[in-house]
């Protein structure tokens, strides 16, 4: 990993990160509001840092790992995040996908950054624009904001 981080740092390139709180969610140990990026109170304390949502915790984990190999100046771009709206367990719903993705957009539009990197906005891309009906059955077909016929699955408020 250190060779990759050195290359990114030397060329002033960001690290592209795909982070999905959906896959990390375990209802035995986590509050749903934390993974839906919906909590207004600190849920997880990591030293002097407090996290209200799992997405920022995931990003800051990557920042910490990069710092350990000399990547203090490498930025993270959240190249994929999303929530499936069907095809899987009970938490794969339109309601939860709408909540998660609207909150991801809200966090991306907020220039406050993460607890580890305050004051640095987090460039974020949602997965996916369209459902991918040619993928195997299950949640992978159900990440899109739109159906293949261009009808909206649910609304996301982009700034």
From TrEMBL:
Q: Which InterPro entries match?
A: GH, Glyco_hydro_17, Glyco_hydro_17_plant
- One short Pfam name that applies is Glyco_hydro_17
User: What terms describe the molecular function in GO for this protein?
Assistant: hydrolase activity, hydrolyzing O-glycosyl compounds
| Record's keyword terms, sorted | Glycosidase, Hydrolase
User: What are the GO BP annotations of this UniProt entry?
Assistant: carbohydrate metabolic process
| The keyword Hydrolase belongs to this UniProt entry's keyword annotation | yes
**What superkingdom does the record give?**
Eukaryota
> Which family is this sequence assigned to?
Belongs to the glycosyl hydrolase 17 family.
- Listed name of the protein: Glycosyl hydrolases family 17
